[in-house]
Design a protein that fits this description.
The protein is mainly beta and 85 residues long. The protein has one domain (3-76). Helices cover 6% and strands 16% of the residues. The radius of gyration is 14 Å and the shape is globular. Bound molecules: iron/sulfur cluster (SF4). Iron/sulfur cluster (SF4) is lined by residues 15, 17, 20, 22-23, 41, 43, 70, 74-76, 78-79. Residues 15, 17, 20, 22-23, 41, 43, 70, 74-76, 78-79 line the site of iron/sulfur cluster.
Length: 85
Amino acid sequence: MSEGEEAERGGPAGERCDRCRYWVLDPRDVNADVLDRQGECHRHAPVPSVAAVGEDLPDGSYPNVLWPFTFGDDWCGDFAPRGDL
Ligand code: SF4
């Protein structure tokens, strides 16, 4: 995917999680296609996740709170450009 195609996704003013100061790329996705990259949103504290309760993580733990996980081209109204850091 080219940079031009990438820019067409996200919010109406170019908001994208992967351009947001609160987003942390999942290190497993560093080499993934732009549209397949996921990361954690750190805008708010970790939240309970019903879907994750009882599921095994690779390290064998059982999480019941998680940072929200989003794709790089997702966005929300709390978007803040990385340049604001
Ligand atoms: S969900 Fe909103 S606040 Fe969180 S990383 Fe994406 S744009 Fe930023």
